[in-house]
Amino acid sequence: MTSTPTPPPASAATDAAIDTDAVVLSPRAWVPLGLLALAGAVLGLRPLWSAALWPALAMGLMGLFLLLQTALLRLRFAADALLVSRGDTVIRRFPYDAWISWRVWWPALPVLFYFREQKSIHLLPMLFDATALRQELERRLPISSPPGSSPPEAGSP
Q: At CA 62, angle to CA 102 and CA 64, rounded to 5?
C-alpha cells in the first residue's frame, strides 16, 4: 500500500517563505544589567536615606524581569512583519504595512524602541542588538517625512 504525499499546509509554505529573508536579533542584556546596577547603587544609599530599600527593590525586580525577558524573547524580521517569539512560538506579529513610524530613543545609549502602528503605539525596552535593529528597520521601513517638513533628528523623541 502506497500513499501519495500531501502538500504542506498553506501556513507552512508561508513560514518557509518568511524564513528565507528572516533576521533574528541577538539578545543584549545591557538595559536589565544597568537597572540591576542602579538598584544596587540606590541600595548603597540606605545609610543616608532610610527609604532607599523600596526604590531599590522596585528597580531590582524590574531588572530581573527584563533579564528574564531578554533570555526568553526574540525579535525576528520576516519578509512582511516583525515577529516577537518565545522559542519557536510566535507571540505577536506586527505587519510592516500597518506601521506609521519608528524610533530608537537615545541612539548614543539606546534603551527604548518606539514604533507606532495605525491602531496602537508600542514602547519596548532595548533587550536586543540596537545596531542590527536600526539596520533592519532602515532596510525594511525607511524613515519618511511628510511633505514640507524636515526629517526627524536622530535621538529626538
A: 110
User: Does residue 41 surpass a pLDDT of 90?
Assistant: yes
Rounded to two decimals, the pTM is 0.71
Sorting pLDDT into bands at 50, 70 and 90, what band is 52? confident
Q: Which amino acid is at 26?
A: S
Domains, the chain: 19-138 (2.30.29)
What are the angstrom distances between the C-alpha of 63 and each of 1, 59, 113? 59, 6, 17
Measured between its terminal Cα atoms, the distance across the chain in Å is 66
Instruction: List the one residue out of 79, 50, 60 whose CA is nearest residue 141.
Output: 79
